[in-house]
Design a protein that fits this description.
This protein is mainly β and 119 residues long. The strands form two sheets. Strands 2, 4, 5, 6, 9, 10 and 11 form a seven-stranded mixed β-sheet that branches. It is globular and about 40 Å long.
Length: 119
């Protein structure tokens, strides 16, 4: 059963950068698309972006051009670079494994989350 462990969150001033990592417990994760999500206090969880097994990325409009995802399958690690951070980027960030079933998409394994605070 694959597990995902996130790290790299912290506190930064507006305009700064952080690098989040999502480490998988085994190599099988490399077959799957991985999504990034965030949830700010008092708000619903929202999608930030995703990366497929070939490393092709997609992003929400709110972070496009500022966030960059990558994956290193040899290290079972996924990274998300957060640049030009804004106060509204403050949230707990999660990575999750994507599955599909009959054309429907769902996320079945979630990391524990890492806090990003921008002031």
């Amino acid at each position: 059963h694959v597990q995902l462990v996130e790290s790299g969150g912290g506190s930064v001033q507006a305009g700064g950068s952080l690098r989040l990592s999502c480490a998988a417990s085994d190599s099988t994760y490399s077959r799957y698309c991985i999504g990034w999500f965030r949830q700010a206090l008092g708000r619903e969880r929202e999608g930030v972006g995703g990366i497929d097994s070939d490393g092709v990325t997609s992003y929400a409009d709110s972070v496009k051009g500022r966030f960059t995802g990558s994956r290193d399958n040899a290290k079972n690690t996924l990274n998300l670079e957060l640049n030009s951070l804004e106060i509204q980027d403050t949230a707990t960030y999660y990575c999750a494994r994507q599955r599909t079933n009959g054309g429907s998409r769902y996320f079945d394994v979630w990391g524990q989350g890492t806090q990003v605070t921008v002031s």
